[in-house]
Amino acid sequence: MLRSYDKSKLVAGTDEAGRGCLAGPVTAAAIILPKNFKNKILNDSKVMSLKNRNLLRNLIHENSFDFAVTHVFMEEIDNMNILNASITAMQRSIMKLKTKPDCIIVDGNRFKPLDSIPHECIIKGDGKFLSIAAASVLAKTHRDEYMQKIHEEFPMYNWIKNKGYPTREHRAAIEKYGITKYHRKSFKLLPDQLKIEF
């Protein structure tokens, strides 16, 4: 059962999705949940079914104290690297919140200080704390929605299914068709034995 971090404080949980993808943005969410928020099916978005993620997305939208979602797109990822882009996406989401939190809890082990707000990095935090899990659900569902839209423009990469992750099918499509404006040029898009023309 996931728990609240500290009911005496206004806590913002944050998480990102899409860090390991070859195409599309890295997407982060920040959320402040009501202090009495409880939900039995909320968990790390990666272990939840699509049906439950979408159900919870609507519930979180309607019941959160405050939330925000941010995409950081391919050009910025290529310019600043994926770690910095992930942190930037989380920071921008926190800065979009209408209410400044008392503290920030971050999924993972890397973050940069933001606006003098105390923060704590928590390994596998999306499986421990409600607000990080809720942020993981929002980040994943909003990013998946974006990938479904760009799938219509380039259906040969099947982003509606693989969401830009480096599946065998996705890499085979890159080998056959080349890259798109949505691919991250700084990533290893194909194995070393295969070359790609930019």
Radius of gyration: 17 Å
Helix content: 25-40%
Please give the CATH class.
Alpha Beta
Mean pLDDT: 93
Helix-strand pattern, N to C?
EEHEHHEEHHH
> Any idea what the CATH architecture is?
2-Layer Sandwich
Quote the CATH topology: Nucleotidyltransferase, domain 5
Runs with pLDDT <50, length 5+?
Answer: none
**% residues in beta strands:** 15-25%
Number of strands: 5
Major sheet strand order: 3-2-1-4-5
Number of helices: 6
The coarse silhouette is: globular
Provide the number of structural domains: 1
Structural notes for this entry:
This protein is of the alpha/beta class. The chain has one domain (about 10-150): Nucleotidyltransferase, domain 5. It contains 6 helices and 5 strands; from the N terminus they run ββαβααββααα. The protein has helices at about 50-65, 75-80, 80-95, 130-150, 160, 170-175, and strands spanning about 10-15, 25-30, 65-70, 105, 120. It has a 5-stranded mixed sheet. Helix 1 crosses helix 4 and helix 2 (about 75-80) crosses helix 3 (about 80-95). The protein is globular. The protein starts with 10 loop residues before the first strand and ends in a 21-residue tail after the last helix.
Task: Describe the secondary structure blueprint for this structure.
Blueprint: E1 11-17, E2 26-32, H1 50-63, E3 66-72, H2 74-80, H3 82-96, E4 103-107, E5 119-122, H4 130-151, H5 159-162, H6 168-177
Parallel strand pairs: 1-4, 4-5
Antiparallel strand pairs: 1-2, 2-3
Helix pairs in contact: 1-4, 2-3
